[in-house]
Each structure stands twice: as C-alpha cells, then as structure tokens.
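Hey,
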Amino acid sequence: MQLKANVLDEAAVLRALTRIAHEIIERNKGVDDVVLVGIKSRGVPLANIIKTVISKATGVELPVGELDISLYRDDLKSSGEPVVKDHLKVPVLGKKVVLVDDVMFTGRTVRAAIEAIMHHGRAAAIQLAVLVDRGHRELPLRPDYVGKNLPTSREEVVSVSIPPYDKDICVDIYEL
C-alpha cells in the first residue's frame, strides 16, 4: 500500500472527537443514562477520548464498554468455534448506548455491533459515532455523529492511527 494523503492530523482528530462529544450531550439533552461502547479495536480509545471530553464538559464520568463483534460478523469466516470476547461490563438495559467506531464502510461491523448490544439487553436507544464515514454502504445504516465524511474509492484504504495501537494520532488514505 502506498500513502495517498494524510486526511486528519492529531489536532483535527481531537477537534472532531470534541465536536462529537458535544453533539452527544446536546442530542441526548445531557448524559443521563448514556453509555459509550467502543468497537474493538480502535473504537475503544476513541470512546475514551469522547468520555474525557464529556466529563470535562458535564462533570459526569460515563461508563465505557468494549465490544469485540467478531462472533456476530456475517461476512467473516472463522475456523473452529467462535468465542465471545466482549468486555462490555456496562449495563445496556434501558440505556442510551452510543457505539463508537473508527471508520464506517459497508455497515457490516455496525450491524454486528447492534446485534451484540441487543444480545446484552434492550437498550432505550442505540446511536452511532464514527470518526470517519467513507461511504460504500451495503446495509441501510448511517451514523448519528460523524467526525469527517470522506468519499473514497473501493481501491483505497482509510487508516486511523491512535495509541495504544499506534504511535501517532491521525487518519491517512492509502492506495492498494
């Protein structure tokens, strides 16, 4: 893969996440009964950044769960028995769940995450926050909160870098 463009640097990523955090507060008229659930892997640190911004703005520490949706994917083949690896550890029953992911593409990850959340209980609402929406949906889903809409071709790869998985914080586009 060859680097095509740096789309968001660290400052731009943090601005986008700050905007998303404030939109979550506004849309939900506060953060009562709101829980954040990061979709592994990069959705988890993004959810924690949003949590920090919300905490500074409201004084409320939101719970953050981690969700590994691999068991719920309909387009990935696995060998052997699938294993549930979610660390949700936050109640979803009657809560407003905000799923957080790095890039929305076909919608299959989000569909799987919704199914996994529903497996844990009936949420009052499920909302979706993504850092990047790149289009190419295969399912009729759309995010509620978007850091950056980024039209791409299917021959491009959108890469989100964020600690602890990466050294820097940025969003890059690569050509295959």
